[in-house]
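Cross-check.
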Amino acid sequence: MLPEVTTVVPASLRRCCVGGSAHGLAQQQAAVNSKAPLRMSTIVWSVTKVVVLGTVLGVIGLAPVAAAAYAAWLHWPRLVLAAALAAETCFALYYFFVITKNLNALPDQHNPPADYEPQQLVASFLQHIARVDDLRGFLSQWFLDAPYDSIRHDNVKELVAFALFFKTPEQVQEQGLMPQLDALLAKLSAMHDLQLPPGYNPDLKFMSHLWGDMPHMYRPLFFYIAMEVIELLSCGILACCGFKRYSVLGCTYYTWGLPEPQPQQGAQQQQQQQ
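Predicted model, tokenized:
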């Protein structure tokens, strides 16, 4: 075993080391304190540059906006007119290319409902025709006031196929319903002693309003805006006067001083309407 060695440091040397450490710490603290104002000035200068640069860019960016606003203030009637013309043009294009197409759209195939009974429909049709005094004039009206002498047998067949089956004679033939259509025409001729010449007159057109284009009239956009504003004002006035608004099967109505409709009554009304 080696003997333990103990080192003895003199007291004067210990005081020198402690004094040197304190002096170094004081110098470091002084250096840190001297750098604090420099850091603060750097931060202030950076913030000042950002504020000044943002202000300059804001002024530069707002200058065109201010110029445009001033020009609009000077020429606002022309701008309003230009905006109205642009809106009207867009609405007209939308009306003629979208709305009109949707109004005139029809499905290719028209299948009858599940509860369709052709015999009952034929009987109702014959009862209605029996009450017509002047069948020839009635047919002329359906063919757009064409002379009765110009109406042919196949023209009436085409009209009846449309009225009862909502189909063309070709579609009636394809679905095997032509015997029913011929029997109906025979009964119709016997009831009113019609002597229709055979053949088909391609120049005749009947009132096939469900097949033809739906008649409509273009109205400017301002008209529709005015109608919407009037409707809103009407609803507001009725609400202020104490009227209550209800809607049944897409039909809107107002009541005043009447009790609230019961859900059961509304369901009975819908069943009765159906």
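The chain is about 65% helix and 5% strand. The radius of gyration is 46 Å. Passed to J.P. for a second look.
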